[in-house]
């Protein structure tokens, strides 16, 4: 069974709204850009991947649904995970947290992993959105000053991020004094509670057996976090949520999962099947489009802007309604972009904002005739694992990107189609 979600039919218009688009969520909801391209998301597989992550960990799961659940849709994915029994979520921004709270109700813990501006504190308190404390020296006094002017009425729940080696945000974990002082400051504040403690790994995604330097860094991060956790325990501080393991650490580092003092794991990518080899996680998304024109060209006919590609005599060129504004990016390697029509890979010869053109020669050579327009499914990113040439990893490598950039970068003007086909 499938159901389609285009921008005009989104379960929640905010799920489609990107701040900076210049449109309100209501205005954006009135725009439907169904141009023949679609992202197909298998919610049953996401549910199965969640169950596999929970079983693998033997711990409760904080499901990371940042970047609109890696582009798969914040609300539909959140609802499915809650149906599976998920009671905790992590997002990147307060706005995403508020949208999730509105759709999922009061029950789940929702944590903002990123920075929250001071003007968002009252909203967070009212809606029981947990916030990350990203800094101690500069940010906390600003928060304090904001709340001295306006009493929230309800405490704000904080998770303290310990910077054990990511060097991005958080309280530097090498300083036990700063960590203890900040924890005590939060606990002493009448408007705050220390609900959680966590860190983020810098290199846990490297294959452990092949990357001794990355392994050493990850183990150092784990030990440093444990040292600070024990320091806090010695001061009588016992947060409800203690979480280290992201998806790669869940798969490779039992040291970040199994200790009894760790309460949760925090997977994101494996929920979409983006795991390591030989793990139970299955790909839950693919990206498809269609042919809108097939034309046989004379020799040296120019194709696309600037006529940078010239056709061979009798060559068939197909046009696809997808371009870089949809998230289909130009290659950064010597290999051209390729797409699949039926079981045949064909190269992209011209790419623009809204369309691209493909050389149908390999298809004609194998099938004896060009494909039918509009009735042909063209695969851009498949739901197969690497080294399949259209896996998310393979496509992203041609684009000079990480697979997460490629998947989360599929624009919302591609219709989302949610399937409930059993895995």
Tell me what you see in this structure.
The chain has helices at 25-29, 43-57, 66-70, 74-83, 94-104, 121-126, 139-149, 176-188, 212-234, 247-252, 361-367, 392-398, 403-408, and strands at 2-5, 38-42, 60-61, 63-64, 88-91, 109-112, 129-133, 156-163, 171-172, 192-198, 241-243, 264-265, 285-290, 293-297, 302-303, 309-310, 315-320, 338-341, 344-351, 356-359, 377-381, 415-419. It is α/β, with parallel strands linked by helices. It is built from 13 helices and 22 strands. Strand 10, helix 9 and strand 11 (241-243) form a beta-alpha-beta unit. 30% of the residues lie in helices and 22% in strands. Residues 6-24 and 26-30 have low confidence and may be disordered.
Keywords:
423 residues, alpha/beta, ten-stranded mixed β-sheet, eight-stranded parallel β-sheet
Radius of gyration: 24 Å
Determine the N-to-C terminus distance. Answer: 12 Å
Average predicted local confidence, pLDDT: 91
Give the biggest beta sheet.
Answer: 10 strands, mixed
β-sheet strand percentage: 15-25%
Q: Biggest sheet: strands side by side, in what order?
A: 1-22-2-13-21-18-19-20-17-14
Oligomer: single chain
Number of helices: 13
Structural class: alpha/beta
Principal-axis shape equals elongated
Uncertain ranges: 6-24, 26-30
Helical residues, percent: 25-40%
The count of β-strands is 22
Topology:
Layout: E1 2-5, H1 25-29, E2 38-42, H2 43-57, E3 60-61, E4 63-64, H3 66-70, H4 74-83, E5 88-91, H5 94-104, E6 109-112, H6 121-126, E7 129-133, H7 139-149, E8 156-163, E9 171-172, H8 176-188, E10 192-198, H9 212-234, E11 241-243, H10 247-252, E12 264-265, E13 285-290, E14 293-297, E15 302-303, E16 309-310, E17 315-320, E18 338-341, E19 344-351, E20 356-359, H11 361-367, E21 377-381, H12 392-398, H13 403-408, E22 415-419
Parallel strand pairs: 2-22, 3-12, 4-5, 5-6, 6-7, 7-8, 8-9, 8-10, 10-11
Antiparallel strand pairs: 1-22, 2-13, 13-21, 14-17, 15-16, 17-20, 18-19, 18-21, 19-20
């Amino acid at each position: 069974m499938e159901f389609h979600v285009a921008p005009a039919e989104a379960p929640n218009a905010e799920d489609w709204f990107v701040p900076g688009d210049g449109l309100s969520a209501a205005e954006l909801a009135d725009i439907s850009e169904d141009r023949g391209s679609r992202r197909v998301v298998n919610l049953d597989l996401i549910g199965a991947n969640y169950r596999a992550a929970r079983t693998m960990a033997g711990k409760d799961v904080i499901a990371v649904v940042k970047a609109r659940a890696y582009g798969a849709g914040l609300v539909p994915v959140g609802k499915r995970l809650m149906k599976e029994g998920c009671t905790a979520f992590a997002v990147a921004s307060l706005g995403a947290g508020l949208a999730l709270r509105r759709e999922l109700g009061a029950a789940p813990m929702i944590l903002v992993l990123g920075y929250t501006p001071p003007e968002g504190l009252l909203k967070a308190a009212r809606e029981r959105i947990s916030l990350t404390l990203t800094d101690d020296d500069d940010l906390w006094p600003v928060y304090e000053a904001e709340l001295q002017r306006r009493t929230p009425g309800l405490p704000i729940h904080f998770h303290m991020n310990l910077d054990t080696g990511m060097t991005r945000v958080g309280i530097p974990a090498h300083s036990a004094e700063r960590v203890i002082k900040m924890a005590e400051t939060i606990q002493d504040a009448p408007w705050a509670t220390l609900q959680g403690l966590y860190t983020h790994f810098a290199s846990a995604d490297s294959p452990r057996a092949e990357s001794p330097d990355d392994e050493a860094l990850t183990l150092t991060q784990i030990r440093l976090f444990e040292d600070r956790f024990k320091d806090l325990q010695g001061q009588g501080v016992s947060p409800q949520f203690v979480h280290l393991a992201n998806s790669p650490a869940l798969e490779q580092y039992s040291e970040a999962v199994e200790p009894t003092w760790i309460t949760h794991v925090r997977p994101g990518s494996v929920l979409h099947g983006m795991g390591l080899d030989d793990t139970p996680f299955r790909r839950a998304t693919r990206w498809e489009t269609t042919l809108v024109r097939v034309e046989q060209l004379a020799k040296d006919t120019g194709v696309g802007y600037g006529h940078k590609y010239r056709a061979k005599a009798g060559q068939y060129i197909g046009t696809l309604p997808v371009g870089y504004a949809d998230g289909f990016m130009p290659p950064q390697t010597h290999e051209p972009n390729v797409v699949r029509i039926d079981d045949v890979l064909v190269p992209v010869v011209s790419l623009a904002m809204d369309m691209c053109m493909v050389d149908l020669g390999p298809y004609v050579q194998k099938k004896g005739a060009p494909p039918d327009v509009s009735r042909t499914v063209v695969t851009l990113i498949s739901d197969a694992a690497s080294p399949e040439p259209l896996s998310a990893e393979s496509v992203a490598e041609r684009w000079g990107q990480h697979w997460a950039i490629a998947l989360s970068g599929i624009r919302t003007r591609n219709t989302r189609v949610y399937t409930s086909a059993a895995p």
